Amino acid sequence: MKNIHYLFRLKSVFLLCCKGFGQTRFVYIAALGLFLAGCTSTIDVEPVKPNTVSNYSADFLREWFSLECRIVKETAGFLPPQASRAFGYVGIAAYESVYSGIPNASPLAGQLNQLVPASMPKPSPDYIRYHWGIVVNAAVADMMRKMFDKNLSEANLKKINDLEAQNLANFTATINKPLADLSEKHGKAVSQAIYDYSKTDGGHESYLNPFSKPYTPVTGADKWVPTDAKNLTPLSPHWFQCRPVIASDMAFGSPAKPIAFSTDKSSTFYKQALAVYNQVKGNTAEQVEITKFWADDPFATCTPTGHTFNIMTQLLEETNATLEKAVVGYAMLGVGEIDAFIACWKAKYDYSLIRPVSYIQKYIDPNFQTVIGTPAFPAYTSGHATEIAVGERIFIKLFTNGDGNYTFTDRSQVQHGFQPRKFTNFSAMAQECANSRLYGGIHYDMDNQNGLLMGRGIGDNVLKAIQWPQSVK
Predict the structure, then answer these.
(1) With the C-alpha atoms ordered 115, 462, 308, 228, is the resulting torsion angle positive or negative?
(2) For 82-96, what is each residue's pLDDT tens digit?
């Protein structure tokens, strides 16, 4: 059985010969047509299925993101901002490696901030048909190694290498080696180009010094102060200087100013703090459960972004989504999560607002304790609220008719020891996540509500600012 590579080369030889024979070239073209027609019953064209990404299962890609969750949890330096970046670029690489196999799809190059088309390798659809599963597998494996790089343990590097090899073996069982090699080469070339792009965003290797030490926090009555002895400086104070993936996201990620600081008991700010105090004192058992379910502490879970990516993974599985929908969904979420943390961290360090626990212990009750630990960075706005609202908008787009109604049970936290929670609407899910920070005593209500507004604005912009494929399967 001759393979497709030989067939395309033979076609090229015929056409080349025809150019030198003037009018007789049509005789050769006709002969080529008869030759091809006669060979259709004997030549094994690979891959057998039509060469579109929607013909591939997303099972292996979902497994990749589940593995990334475990690696984020186990790798030093990957706190919420760093984790959002790692998940985000893996999602971007997955999509960009296979967009040419999605009908009417556009590349992200030329649409993302400073990602120029000339920097990206081009596929060769005129003479070869890539195996899109192999392409994505290579791109994702390579990008994950690069994202965790110097802090990646030998055990987790082996997990990446083993999963890559296992998937490749499964895929190559049905195609020839030249085609597999070309597919793998393209995936790795795209990964390298996206990685080169990522290295200029301001967050490269930030996991090596996530607290940007040495750093001197700003001071003042309304300013953040350490909330535990282990972290005397705030997390990633320069993160807001990172390059957003979509420049216009920052316009939607600029919240209103926080309520004016005051210690006057009749002031609006004091009432915000008092509401946190009263909420924690009066929490129901379910509210405590909600607090812990959404806490997503680094190194105990795979951070808030990891939780939202896990929800995406579950939704893709439940809807039997193909590889086409999976790469689009992960890329949408990846772009939005990166920008959500940049925008949120800009607000945090624009205002450096004191955390509720610090305010309450100083002005209301010195014995006040939160339900869970307070993260080591300023209050306004809530990172949880901002990032989950991005997920809300993307889930609504991909899995509903626009009303947000979707009944599902979030089982993503079972792996971390929590009971699953059931939802009937994505907006209600996001609101519960935001509220969990109030229940925990971690945030003022204004942090949460304005964080939701920021995230929804960014999520909507991700959907509008990029030409995503429509009606993905």
Answers:
(1) positive
(2) 999 999 999 999 999
